[in-house]
Design a protein that fits this description.
- The protein is 73% helix and 0% strand.
- The protein has 115 residues and is mainly α.
């Protein structure tokens, strides 16, 4: 029988919060490229994607600058959350991770929106 109990996030020590934030930032950075590659694979495997590749018609209506911007924002926010000094700015680091995940999920949704 396991006698340990899970602590709510509010009851974590500052060091545990820093580790949690760093873990989410690392996970986001590691998943950024797979999200993009898999999203494009889904789009290109469909009829519309095939027509775009073969004939250049019916291609994405999402501007490339929006895709590059979301990718860059996710990358920069994730790196900022990792290099931010531990112990100071815990809430700023947490917001950076939220921005990172929001940007990369938005990027995946923008790519998939034309599937």
């Amino acid at each position: 029988m396991n006698t340990t109990t899970e602590q709510p996030v509010a009851a974590l020590t500052p060091r545990q919060k820093d580790r949690l934030i760093s873990g989410w930032a690392i996970a986001g950075l590691l998943l950024l490229l797979p999200i993009v590659v898999l999203s494009w694979a889904v789009v290109l495997s469909g009829e519309r994607g095939t027509r775009c590749v073969m004939y250049g018609e019916g291609c994405s209506t999402v501007p490339g600058s929006a895709l590059y911007g979301a990718f860059s924002l996710a990358l920069v926010a994730g790196i900022a959350a990792l290099v931010w000094p531990r112990g100071r700015g815990t809430y700023s680091r947490a917001w950076a991770v939220c921005v990172q995940w929001g940007a990369q999920l938005t990027l995946g949704a923008m790519i998939l929106s034309d599937a």
